[in-house]
Amino acid sequence: MVKEIEAQVAFAKPADVVDDLQRKGMLRATAHPIDADQQEAFELKPCRLRDWSAPSESKLNLETMGFDHIELPSNALLQNTLENVRLAGKISRVEASIIRKQLKGRSFKLSSGKRLRLLFIAAEGFIMRKAGPNGMKVDPDIAMSEMNGHDGALTVHADQDVRGTPLKQMMHGAAPGYFDTSHRMVLIKYRPFF
Hints:
It is a single chain. By secondary structure, the chain is α+β, with helices and mostly antiparallel strands. The protein contains six helices and eight strands; from the N terminus they run E-E-E-H-E-H-E-H-H-E-E-H-H-E. It folds into two domains: 1-53, no CATH class; 58-189, no CATH class. Helix content is 21%, strand content 21%. The chain has a two-stranded antiparallel ribbon with strand order 1-4. Strands 2-3 form a two-stranded antiparallel ribbon. A two-stranded parallel ribbon has the order 5-8.
């Protein structure tokens, strides 16, 4: 099993990083139009990517690494819906709604033994992405829609800033009391995977 591979990861070009006028001392990357050539809009750098799912690897840890994984419950409706999405290679609004309802409010055990309650799932959180080697399109004839037909993401999607936005606003100022404001991500693991 391959434990580590080299891949091109997209970073903002230095010329596109500007002062954040709303938050003194902070920087932000300028936005690119959705139809911009992503390969041209970003600076691609080779990075080593490690497969942390390998049995010999250390466990991920949300508090120390910013990443973790959870096992989804053996809920028949959830598992059947995920399997239908996997087989179809696309997700429908009905399936997205079922997955949301089956996950929202649930508590999951983290690798550290602590528990995580899933309180919110972003509205744009359901996107099926597919990419072949070196970012090649798997099926160039499929048109991109809101949830389906997206290419592999070139950049990290980090919509939470270091001061707690947007969670701070969504939770009426309470978010910093519940969370630290560094980026945290939970990898939801669904089996079987290809």
